[in-house]
Write a structure and sequence with these properties.
Length: 423
Amino acid sequence: MSQEILIKSAKIIDQNSKFHNKKMDVLLKDGIIKKIDKNIKATSKQIVYDQKNLHLSPGWFDMKVNFRDPGFEHKEDLKSGNNAAATGGFTGVACMPSTCPPVHTKSQVEYIKNKSASMIVNVYPVGTISYNHEGKEISEMFDMHNSGAIAFSDDKKPIKDSGLMIRALQYVQGFGGLIMSHPNDTSISHNGMMNESNTSTMLGLVGIPEIAEEIMVERDLALTAYTNGKLHFSTISTAKSVALIRAAKKKGLKITAEISANNLVLDDTSVESFDSNFKLEPPLRNKKDIKALIKGVKDGTIDTICSDHCPEDVEEKDRDFQDATPGIIGLETCFSLILSALGEDVSIDEIVKIMSTNPREILGLPLPTINVNERVELTLFDPKLKWTYNKVYSKSKNTPFLEQELMGRAIAIFNGDQVADCN
């Protein structure tokens, strides 16, 4: 960013800035915020962003993405995943360990960090909880932490062994690590294809009962209390899970929770089309659950909303519904889906907190802020901009939102001395 960048008349959304909720001009140069003022005169040598309804916030952060690299680069790689994240307005992502080999030793952590080091979106590797992603023995978490692993998760493979989960919660306390839990009792949800409901019965598809998630939430809450540990729940989806986490937070347990944007806007009736892009894990639930998720966001029970970006190639998705692999891509549509779900109920201030501040606080990362002389890590966006999702930057195309008109979009991201336009 040796060239100066001038952002004109942008509403600053940053509760840690003295310019919060003020319309200001912002001048960027050499990766630093050089000046913030009411009217900064533009020059012919500057790149200028000047359009209606600009908003500027600390860069957004996604706590759950899969970039499939190494091993499954035909679905996604670090470069294409970075492009998708940048297009969606994100300057940082936590990258899940479901690769081949899985991220279970420091060498895999270092591979991801080194390969993505020069990219505009900061990629933070998440290591596995269990060695080789098998759910049997603890992985080399301390070594991975020292090499840059930001947290530990077995991604979509829930930890079945309660003893392993206890040991993991205890072990990471020695270095301030974070365990991320995907609550799903697979002995209950085994072979399930969608939410257990009247719809699943009508379609003749094996259902996934809500209790499969909830019983694991209860178990992990009990284990967190027993160990006095710290736990983050990934992609919860049911009303009772929200209620359990809300009650546990009131008791003072050190827990946080996230939901997927997809589970906010889609319900299980979408599956009636038998489109495999509606096959997700956790599955799409019912409207009652969606209302509970939204209430959880509004009252702070839910700390953050992720894209749950899961790229899958045509071979994995172009099958009968029961045989298709779960998951959709979500980085490029995440912000629009959050806006459409939360609407007027949640302010832009709170949405930015959910997408920027809270994920970094959970992971113990520094918070970018919009003040003079601060390092640049910013997202420029328009929450009212209408656009059609007809260009996909991910390698995979597994999304039900193609060709749909959406509202709310990032305009550009700025990270250090790099800039990327989001279109």
